[in-house]
Amino acid sequence: MHFHISISAFYQKFLFAIQRLPKCGFTPSGAIFPTGSEAVLRCEASGNPPMTVHWKRFDQLIESHQQMDRFQLSSVASDGRDFLDLNISRVVADDGGMYVCQAANLYGSDATDIRLIVQELPRAPGQLQLTSVQSRSAELQWLDEDIDPLLEYRVQLTRPGTIGWTFNQTIEARGRSLVTLPHLHPFTVYEVQVNAINSAGIGPPSAPLQFQTHEEIPSGPVRHVQAESKSSRSALVSWLPPSEETWNGRLVTFTVTCLETNGNGQIVQRSVAYTTTDFRPVRRVQVTVEELRPATVYAVTVRALNRMGAGPESDPPVSLTTPEAPPSSSPVNLHCVTLSAYAIQLTWAHPTLANHHGHLQGFRIFYKVFSSNNRHRIVLADEVSSFLRPESKRVGPNVLDSVLYGLQAYQNYSIQIAALNRAGSGPLSVPVVCQTDETVPVAVHEVKAASLSSSSILVTWRRSTPPSGRIAHYVIQIKGTVTHVLGFCSAVRFDVVVAGQPIMLKQYARILVQTVGPPSSLPGTQ
């Protein structure tokens, strides 16, 4: 500061006047501004008026009449101080540099400079890469080449085609360039980008990195399972796939399980491939399950499978009851015992329980006379009860028996039996053969006598059919004379010559003891 002394003679005294030179300063003293912000440089000048204040850049004055669009000058005077503000809007990198404020009055000048530092936004992080990808998380790493100090990173994650961010988190920089992305969904495509943040603001995002999380087994069950019987051994099962968000991968197959709830717990499984053109569950899936057992209750469940494995079973299980089917096997241990010439007793055991295929309603017995030419009558018993006298029917938990009455004597009977349920009759058993006992023979018929001479006649007859036993011999009685006994002949016609007397013909048969049958009618002689 310079002191100027002037002496006034008029007053004859000393008058000291101190004249002040201009002085420049800046408010504020800092001059760091981020790109795109508004910078205000204020120069504060003090000193004796009149005083002028100017801003310079690159040794050129910034004049008021030369103000550019982004540069504005404004001045204010207060308490003997002059303020000249330089306003720069939308600061860019080229605005950085040295700015000079200069003040001058009659006594001198002063100048001071300030460096305007434009802090640019950080560059986008580069070289994004995933160091680990799981089904529900991923680790992201990137390269940071920015020289300026960073404050934070902003990591944003989204699913392409959706609105908003699945993950939007800001993390402190502190030299970090690694972050874990949690709470992801399996088998889903994501895009991730990273912004660097410094005091100037948020920098541009990195190039988006797209990735897909790994699969895991489905987490949801199939829906709306239905099952209906198509026959006694097959059923149609249909369902809707799980909700798409629970697939956790690409569905490849469905497995249908039919678990028998009674009996020995048979399990029948059937797999069906799942194909769809647009990878969306737009239709019901159905499959025919075969090899089921008749008259059986099954619990039906369905599972969806992707390449990682099977999801949960549908719940609750759907109940399926197959219709009855005719028994698949015949009664076992069929035996017959001859009771008399007209009755045979039968005994048998139930078919194997697994072959009942329903509730047994009874048995059907078939029996017929067994002969080479098969010309005898066939008898059908519709139900066991129709052949049994009430006192002779005996039904137990394992064995039944029956007596067949009204049979023919001395006949071989072929007997078979089948089990019955509400669906029909099962197969016939292996036939058993029983022979009824012999009985007293019946009279011969068509007896004829013809005179051959004065001392002989010709007697012919036909034996009765079917035979009631083994014929031992025939007896011809001549009235008033001796009885003639003839050996048995297998021929249908027998010629007997008895000399000179009228005769009476009788048939004689031997069964257990010799028994004489009723006499035939006596023909006349010629």
Outline:
The chain is an all-beta fold.
Structure, described:
The protein is mostly beta strands and 526 residues long. The chain folds into five domains: 116 residues, Immunoglobulins (Immunoglobulin-like, Sandwich); 87 residues, Sandwich (Immunoglobulin-like), CATH 2.60.40; 97 residues, Immunoglobulins (Immunoglobulin-like); 104 residues, Sandwich (Immunoglobulin-like); 72 residues, Immunoglobulins (Immunoglobulin-like). It is 0% helix and 49% strand. It has no helices and 43 strands. The strands form eleven sheets. The protein has a five-stranded mixed β-sheet, with no helix packed on it. Strand 28 and strand 29 form a beta hairpin. The protein is rod-shaped. The N and C termini lie far apart (196 Å). The N terminus and C terminus are likely disordered.
